[in-house]
Structure formats: structure tokens, C-alpha cells
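JOB MANIFEST
job_type = single_chain_structure
chain_count = 1
residues = 138
[input]
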Amino acid sequence: MKRIIAAVCLLFCIGMLAAQTSVPIPQREAHGTFTAVGSSSVIDQQGTSIGYHNLKWKLGGTVPATTCTIKVEKSDDNTTFADGFTAVNCADGQTRLKDWVFFSARYIKITLVTFSGGTSPRIDYEYLGSIVNPASGG
């Protein structure tokens, strides 16, 4: 009986120790809505080691837009921005990037490049950043 109690206590202690030493993967998320061409607020990535980026979107409105391209831009100085990845067609039925894209940057912003057609169209987006490639299982 003492051995069973000791074994249970040992397993409990090991579980508690493992829970305390696990480190969560830092991630960044940003959400927003566009109703016209433009850029989001800048997302500060400094000190995060985030290198993998993805984007989800959902078209809405009375009648959704028929032409829409969106991209993530990157910057190291928060002044000059360049493509983090090429603009993607967000009116083709897709709702997210197929693959996570790797690049480093201190600052990120989402830019709606083209947006037309529809009635009162809007696009809701969600930016996701991770230090590991979630598609590979970490």
C-alpha cells in the first residue's frame, strides 16, 4: 500500500514539475476590418522572435467585394515597409494562406491593396505570428 501511495505521489510531482517547466510558444494575433483600401495599425514584433506569419480573412457586406488583394508588409525601422509576402487574391473563395510564411521583421502591418465591387463590402482579417511553424507541429 505504501508503494502505491509513493508511486502516485511521484507521478503527481513529475506532472506538476513538467507543467511548471513548459514554456508556451509566444504568438501574436491582430484583428481588424477594412471597408476600403489602406493599411492596418503597425504591429510591434520587437523582442518576440516571431518568424512565421499567416493571415486569415472573411469577406462580408450586403454583397461581398469581387476584387480584393491583401498582403502583410514588414519593416525593421517602422518607416520603410516592404512585402512580407506577395499580395494574395482574397476574393477567390480562399479564407487563409495555405502555408505559413517565414521572414523576420520588427514591425508588421496588413495592407488591403485592391478592393472593389459588391455592396457595402468589408473584409475582416486575422494576422497570426509564431516563433515556430505551426504547420510542422512545432
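[summary]
The helical segments are 2-21.
The longest helix spans residues 2-21.
exit_status = 0
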